[in-house]
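Hi R.,

Here's the chain you asked about this morning:
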Amino acid sequence: MKKIGRNDPCWCGSHKKYKACHQAFDEKIEFYREKGFFVPDHSMIKNAEQIQGIRESGKVNVAVLDYVAEHIEAGMTTEEIDRLVAEKTKELGGIAAPLNFEGFPKSVCTSVNDQVCHGIPSVKDVLKEGDIINVDVSTIYKGYYSDSSRMFCIGQVSEEKKKLVQVVKECVELGLEQVKPWGFMGDMGEAVHNHARENGYKVVREIGGHGVGLEFHEEPFVSYVSRKGTEMLLAPGMIFTIEPMVNMGTDEIFVDEENEWTVYTADGKPSAQWEIMVLVTEEGHEVLAW
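And the predicted structure, written out as tokens:
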């Protein structure tokens, strides 16, 4: 690849000269690369225009989740949640990203109790008093992608389930505190893992977060069972999800053989997940969707 001159247009598409845009950034990345660290490539770094587009998509995503929060209740089917998401997303000018993504048949993922993720909405799945459910909304808005999810407790939920839901939210918050420029993805992952483990829970290892913004799922893979000072270097302009899936019992899982999507806990005990979309900034981080 031809080396960029100081006065050439920057590779990021900002239309600024390289020396005034990403030259110092690239030199810092190269410093870490030479020391043997795992560093992001240019495709993982968003420019200001892209970040603003993703930020706007995130606002739509949050509005859809707010709409679900206003209506979700016992007696509702998960198919009705899918309808709410599809209608509200369209009303706000967006497109539900999950629909037909790699064959997924619905506009949202609804994962109830022992469903870890990728629950498929159905008229047969009726929310009952005491259930916990993760509603995972992903949106395309003006070509930009956003992704976040929330847990909902339906009616009176057992103290065990209530604690699980709260602790997983705390895991995300603690992980977020570790998202800083020139830190490491493992700093976040260790904070998440430690808090879950301290409360007697297990973090799912096989499924993690991901980069997002220009596509639904981008690099890097985001682990929540990693170690401080390891995994990818965090650089300004990276956008990814923090979405640990935390199980009350074993961390072992299996995929539904019939629909080939829905992931369950191997022991039938509950699982919970919160998901946020975060941007690494020059000063720290910015949450783009929660």
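Residues 109 and 136 are 5 Å apart (CA to CA).

Let me know if you need anything else.
M.
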